[in-house]
């Protein structure tokens, strides 16, 4: 299919407003959906260890562990994070995976290709079978920093997002050792290594996720500003990326505002099904150069403050985002109200998580789900969507961490629980993504020894 016909087909296929989504579990909660049944400990097919608790019939294999070797001979870094799966040859999947490495620790892989040879983040590209057996693997972007999440693009590329504004112009940690400014988007093609050219017009702020709208060509961006308000952005490139074959620099960055309400605070608890009309305000200086080496806490707010001065809305830690049939689902990790008897989490925002839906063609923003308490949903982070429209939420909570499903009717269920790792209480799920045909759910374990995991089983038995 040529690119113009592809765009037209997407526009024609958009469903009605929030098709199939009902906000039925926002305040008091409802009985959990049945999902796939009770969870039980299951052994990893790689080494026999129990890492996951899954429903009956599901199996998994871990692979590409931090410290292992890529098939090109170099060493796999840690901090596995956001990820997308693309169709590969003979039923395989090509995974592009972020590494959220911070600090001036030096680039992994070939330093001559690094954006900043002192920065330790980037991406891996891994071809795997649907059962998690590695066919080939190598670094594909290096010399970036804090590559948290991003998003798959329709022209077979991954946009990797830096969740930082570190650089030699910012006074923090060992920033003086860095050679380049950070806080940008980078494009990583499926079939070749990245050029390591930042998309500067898409902003220098703590990016989290990128969700592409093929009907308009806009890339929707979330901001995860841990200690301060966060915003929801869109980048309007100078040419439709499908027609250009890549994401071009030189476009316009905008930030979402609630129509008729200056600086609407959407980080607080919301009424079930709360819906808002929206508008967009321009960011005049999306790529600030800092003079005098300001403190990081000042630099990290530079772009967001521009939008809020023009009335942009406030969210609490926007993290995962995914586009599905004309709607962008975005996760506010600490949005909502503190449940009675629970303490508010550290950082900006008092709740245990919200899921919002932004309808790209009408501009409506709707609350899909707000966690009533941590035992139901605890600090959701990355998100993906199944072929049936059920969301998969990766938790980053204080206790046990789960992969939870959120159905099109607003019911939530437990699909997978992480086996606690002694001495690594901060371990969490990240980067969930379904492989070709929906046969395998690939997910990352961000831990002291990070790894990727392939999960498969009787999907037809439940809502995925």
Automatic annotation (TrEMBL):
Top-level taxon: Bacteria
One Pfam family named in its UniProt record: PhoX
InterPro entries (alphabetical): PhoX (IPR008557)
Name listed for the protein in its UniProt record: Phosphatase
Organism: [Actinomadura] parvosata subsp. kistnae
The organism's taxonomic lineage, starting at the top: Bacteria, Bacillati, Actinomycetota, Actinomycetes, Streptosporangiales
